[in-house]
Amino acid sequence: MLAVIFGRPGCPYCVRAKELAEKLSQERDDFSFRYIDIHAEGISKADLSKTVGKPVETVPQIFIDKLHIGGCTEFEAYAKKNLSLYQH
What we know:
Helix content: 40-55%
CATH topology: Glutaredoxin
Largest sheet: 4 strands, mixed
Structural class: alpha+beta
Radius of gyration: 12 Å
Strand content: 15-25%
Distance between the termini: 20 Å
CATH architecture: 3-Layer(aba) Sandwich
Number of strands: 4
Number of domains: 1
Order of helices and strands: EHEHHEEH
């Protein structure tokens, strides 16, 4: 399973999502992630909106295996429900 996190520098939710992904990748053999800095890559909100398929106003925007999950809160909920996180 591959998570892709689109984020930007200085965004606390992006940092939280990245920390969660790092934790998951350490705990699970079947989880890896890629963090994409939208500023460094020159990706605009319009570009991100096209990728997501609807207007995007915030980051992070997170995909798991090309399925759009949402932002940090949705990612945390997804991890808790589907990836057995916080159950140790």
